[in-house]
Design goal:
mainly alpha; Ferritin; 15 helices; 69% helix; globular; binds fe (ii) ion
Length: 393
């Protein structure tokens, strides 16, 4: 039997549909992440978002090579009709898992009929996408909806509508009733006991890492018109924070004789982010001011642990964490500068306004070497401001 030929038109339609569906899956996982009560499971969703962070980007790139004159991301109507039917019948985790499984199986089927030479770039792309979708599926857990399948035909239907479903977010991310809420920190800053370190690590895991994932999920869901690169950076950060949580939760259990949930949690990081007016202020608050400050704080903590010759494994973990945090600050600066340029806003004005809003001194406690500020993409005006502030102190 002669193998069926996939024309360029069909290949580009599939990629266009898959691009829409991967963005839809990313959105659904962000909502699920916010609504999920179990912190460990939240982190697994975060990991799966990380695995898939570049799918929309690479699909969009390939689409632009396939003689594609229409660069818009459009909604396949038939696909959305199936999705709204599923949402009425099943829970969000069930819909997510089913969509994940269906995307993996569609990709495999398309792969089998993609032109081997003429469309080799798509073939290679779909091979790696298929692998990524499967690893990601293993992270979020298998669907129990075995009798139902989303249809490939519906996705490749060329009737598109350029709208996006409205997302309703909760005022606060979900937490289990088993955890105890407390305003502010659950430890005394002046305390120098070992218990303070235990509580501090618990607080980083539960109050910082988890909430940092959630504010990035919020950003993806709220600022939908931002470029695909921005969504990829947010998904990367969600992945990083998820891994930070897992590492610290494991360390608490294996080396500190405690578990996540032993001490109180707060919503400080989430609340501060919500004080920002628009994405520019929210990026300034979370990624630039707070994470920028965390880079110096973490370096200080690693130094202290090294000097005291304790918690060697924790030092190693913190070094990896700090490498990631520096990228979050760098990306925060990148996108804050992007918005400033597009909207004609002043970077320093935003930083000064937002640091007042969250009641934080600008610059923070630690002065970093100028080359680190440059690596973190702080603009020259910020570096000059910081140098003067530390000279005057
Ligand atoms: Fe982190
Ligand atoms: Fe971070």
């Amino acid at each position: 039997m002669t193998k069926q030929i996939t024309y360029l038109n069909e290949s580009s339609n599939f990629i266009r549909g898959l691009l829409y569906a991967t963005l839809r899956l990313q959105e659904l996982k962000c909502i699920w992440l916010l609504e999920c009560e179990d912190l460990h499971h939240k982190a697994y969703i975060g990991q799966s978002l990380g695995y898939e962070k570049e799918l929309p980007l690479i699909l969009n790139r390939r689409l632009s090579e396939l003689f594609n004159v229409d660069q818009r991301i459009l909604m396949p109507i038939g696909f959305e009709e199936q999705m709204s039917y599923l949402h009425k019948q099943f829970s969000l985790p069930d819909v997510c898992k089913l969509l994940q499984k269906s995307l993996a199986s569609w990709t495999k089927k398309q792969l089998d009929k993609t032109e081997a030479v003429a469309d080799e770039p798509s073939k290679l792309l779909l091979t790696s996408i298929h692998e990524i979708l499967l690893s990601s599926y293993a992270k979020i857990g298998e669907t129990t909806l075995t009798g139902i399948d989303l249809q490939l035909g519906q996705l490749t239907n060329i009737e598109f509508k350029s709208a996006s479903p409205v997302v309703k977010l909760l005022a606060y991310p979900a937490r289990s009733d088993k955890l105890t809420y407390k305003d502010g920190q659950d430890f005394d800053e002046q305390d120098s006991s070992d218990l303070k370190l235990v509580k501090f690590i618990h607080s980083i895991a539960v109050n910082i890492e988890i909430c940092a994932m959630e504010v990035c999920a919020f950003n993806i869901l709220t600022y939908k018109s931002m470029p695909l690169d921005f969504k990829a950076d947010m998904a990367q950060q969600i992945w990083d924070e998820a891994r930070h949580f897992i590492l610290l939760a494991d360390y608490l259990e294996s080396h500190m004789g405690t578990v996540v949930g032993q001490y109180c949690y707060n919503f400080d990081v989430w609340n501060k982010h919500q004080l920002g007016d628009g994405l520019e202020e929210q990026l300034a608050i979370e990624q630039v001011i707070q994470e920028g400050d965390a880079v110096g704080n973490n370096m200080g903590l690693i130094f202290q642990l090294k000097q005291r010759g304790i918690h060697e494994k924790l030092q190693a973990i913190l070094e990896y964490i700090n490498a990631d945090e520096s990228m979050h600050t760098k990306n925060g600066n990148k996108w804050l500068n992007y918005i400033c340029q597009r909207k004609g806003l002043n970077y320093m004005d935003i930083l000064k306004t937002t640091s007042q809003k969250i009641n934080k001194k600008l610059p923070g406690k630690f002065q970093l070497h100028e080359s680190i500020y440059q690596f973190l993409e702080f603009p020259d005006e910020y570096i000059t401001y910081t140098n003067q502030a530390f000279q005057n102190n």
